[in-house]
Amino acid sequence: MSDYPNSLKEVGQSFPRKEARHKVTGQTNYTHHIKLPGMLIGKIFRSTVAHGKIISIDTSQAKAYPGVFAVYTSEDIKTIIPDPYYGPAFLDQPILAINKVHFVGEPVAIVLAEDIHIAENAAQLITAEYEELPAVYDEIEAMSSDIVVHDELKPSGTFPDLKHLHGKKNTNIALDYHLKRGNTQAIFDSAEHVFEHTYHTQQVMHTPLEQMVSVADAHQDQVTIYTASQSPSFVRLEIARLLGMRENQIRVKVPHLGGGFGAKLYIKLEALVVATSLLTKRPVKISLTMEEQFYTITKHPTTFKIKSAVDKNGKILARRCDVWWNGGAYADIGPRVTQKSGFTAAGPYDIENVEIESYALYTNRPPSGALRGFGIPQLVWAYESHTDQIARALNIDPLEIRRKNILKEGRPQATGTIMKGAEIEKVLESVAAKIDWSKPFDKGTGTIRRGRGIAIAFKAAVAPTTSTAIVMINADGSCILSMSSVDMGQASDTSMAQIVAEVLNLNTVDIKVSQPDTDMTPYDMATLGSRSVYHMGKAVKLAAEDAKNKLEKMAQDLNLSKPYHFRDVFIKHYGMQAGSILGFGSFIPSYTPPDKKDGSTLNATPFWMVGGTGVEISIDTETGHITIDRLINVVDCGNPINPKIVDTQLSGAAIMQLGFSLTEKMNLDAGQVTNASFADYKIPGFNDIPLVIENEAIEAYQIDGPFGAKGVGESATFGVSPAIANAIEDAVGVRINELPMTPELIFNAMRKAQQKS
Amino acid sequence: MKIVNQLIPIQFKLNGKTIETEVQAQQNIIELLNKLNLKGARESCGQGLCGACTVIVNNKAVSGCLEFAKSLDKTEVRTIEGLEINGALDPIQESFIETGAFQCGFCTPGFILMTEQLLNQNSNPTDDEIRHYLSGNLCRCAAYPEILKAVHLAAQKRASK
Asked: Rounded to an integer, what distance in angstroms lies between the CA atom of residue A299 and that of residue A316?
């Protein structure tokens, strides 16, 4: 069978989501709706100081409150889990705070009651006394501050590049990644032009509308967890480790998610519900409020200092990138973000001499982790703003400077990895064509000024990671796909079913996709970083092919000639409609970790994601108000499995990034988030979306992807922020170097520029 | 704080069926609907700002997370579960499927109920009117372009019925 698009019947079709009917009738089962007999509800008491020693916690009034079943602190947790620290990179996060608190909002105690209102009321009766310590909030300050967030670093042992940090004291640096290629200093010393700019990004939150929620029914020998998690296999592994149990004693079940975006990864509420369920011998459920979500996981604020040596024609000769990632109080997956994004911090350009320094830092803010792009949008914000600033200074067209420097197929990227299957040029040219870059542009008159901007970016996929899948053919010929990929809205159930249907020559609509249940569905690293279609897609395809081969072998042995119905094979083999065929697929791509000394690797990623953005904007010069008139999103996602769903992913990702670009920011006052609600934290609504949105997945084919496909969930976020900043400068001549680009910021920059001139 | 266990009897119509039940003073509409095993209206922002908790009370859309359950006494309530009649989807629900107007689906019931309200008042709304009317509903997956198409398609379907 050929993999190529023209010969396919299921892959490449824009089927509606398999669960569409459930979603429009309100029938979808989210973890939210889980109710177990005897279930208790947990309400968390949280720290009110950013950094402090816990002197005392008084739970007596809460315990005495009528209807309260139990109140626990870390002392109780330790009776069943002696070392209750978890985390994917560092074992730094306690289930409830121990001795110290590290950020405002950190869980300190928990109240359990059958009635949520009783638990809520009682939680308000808990008091805690702290000896406040000075706190550090800024990533640059954290580099050299005397204030140390954690007394000692405790890498989890999962990642080899963190091992050297074991036991390290008096530092906030949770990872340092260094890349050195060529000789930047010599070039900077001799180059005709050297440009240096610094850019900042703010702290934002994913705010999935389905808030984080987990339920545990835990017993001495068996634990069942129902959770809104993007990583059921990791939850099983980490809970088993915490409890000293085997993986088969932990069962993790995940229904559909009401959004994830990277928030629902690793351990969030799972350890707390398991521990309290063990203590109470009752099922326990915790569902957070929207406000509480702001104290769980966020997107890294960053400072990025970028310096480039450029010749008079605009050719970039050398680049140095210093990136500081504000990881907050717990590392979560921050060190991975720091390293993986470090690979591409210099941008999709062909630069001979590159130096990258990337630091993950602990501070006393709410923790930072993965958010739709794994650090890439923060980097693109800087390098694509920088590209335009160089172009303007040298009086070169912004498109031309990109064309001149673009990283071409077959050329080595900053890590030394040779570019393969990354249609960067094609994406850039498509953005330019769609926005009519070569044609005259109406810059507006009077108080309304118009501008346009572009940006281009790429991303290395997280590696090496494993996916496995099982395809079962039943005796009537129907088929079930079992996998642990989580459908959080990105439609993995549908696209994976399309792959199975294609291989087995069945109809997508007839394929059942079972929901993640670690007792039944085999291992998957996690649903993150746009990895599923490529990794799980390959595993699913292998599993379907395995099932097909077994079935064909059986038919051959029975002397059945094609075409035959699957059912007939079973009936003839088993003498009745009985039996099952199991196909298994497992996939892990090859990967070479970066060299310890110079950060280089000849195999940085299994595939490249490419995204380009073009915007046209209007600015009201009297108010600084900005309107996005046109938004163009172009990506290389290989051959789309389901074009309609890809299209929705593109505008969805771009609009989310629009929020991070223009309105969203967690405001902190002494570590306290002062706008932790939708009343004060503005995510995009109907009135904020651009009047015109155009999406394109360019014609491409990922040679080793399933039917030529690769990931797409993040690609349309990459270029949005810098394209807008570039358009702002085009419109009103001011450069914004921090996010979000509020009307106030734009207005003040314009006034400042006027005063100068 | 001590009133949590006081139960208040109420009677109302839920998707055409009479319900007699008792509620706590602090319970909101969403908690009551969950107790009655209806899953379509969901509490998300908890402040009446996202629309995920939309229910129709006496033909008017309300935020179920802000209104007390006891306020439903002697009212007629419609939820997303009331739209499907004898297994047939409402044209609005069909339109949301055909245009792919959702991703995770958590906000979808709220958008569909608000679309119904809009089309009851304005059978052929413009883009601007749709944006304005649905500005109180949030979709973090940002399927807004598709929702816009879904509302137009639903208007067409209703007109041709």
From this structure: 30
Confidence category of residue B110, pLDDT binned at 50, 70, 90: very high
pLDDT tens for A135-165 read: 999 999 999 999 999 999 999 988 877 888 8
Query: What pTM, to 2 d.p., does this model score?
Result: 0.97
Query: Can you tell me the ipTM of this complex?
Result: 0.97
Residue-wise pLDDT for A193-218, tens only, equals: 999 999 999 999 999 999 999 999 99
Please report the domains of chain B, with CATH numbers, ordered by start residue: 2-82 (3.10.20.30), 91-159 (1.10.150.120)
DSSP-assigned letter for residue A561: -
Strand pairing report for B7-14 and B76-78: parallel
Contact B130, B148 (CB under 8 A): yes
**Joined tokens for residue A196:** 């240096």
Check: CATH 3.30.365.10 for A465-587? yes
- pLDDT at residue A1, rounded to an integer: 40
Domain A298-462+595-756 has CATH 3.30.365.10: yes
Return d(Cα A324, Cα A300) in angstroms, integer: 9
Give CA A408 to chain center in angstroms. Answer: 27
Report d(CA A467, CA A532) in Å as an integer.
Answer: 8
Strand positions, DSSP E, A674-719: 692-697
Report chain B residues whose CB lies below 8 A from the CB of A678. Answer: 45, 47, 49-50, 138
CATH architecture of the region A40-135+206-293: Alpha-Beta Complex (3.90)
DSSP state of A412: B
Do the Cβ atoms of A686 and B96 come within 8 Å?
no
pLDDT at B6: 83
Q: Name residue A409's amino acid.
A: E
CB contact under 8 A, A644 and B106: no
Contact B50 A678 (CB under 8 A): yes
Average pLDDT of the residues in B37-59: 97
Measure the CA–CA gap between A738 and A386, rounded to whole angstroms: 13
- Find the residue in A nearest to B65 (Cα): A289
Clarify whether A129 is annotated catalytic. Answer: no
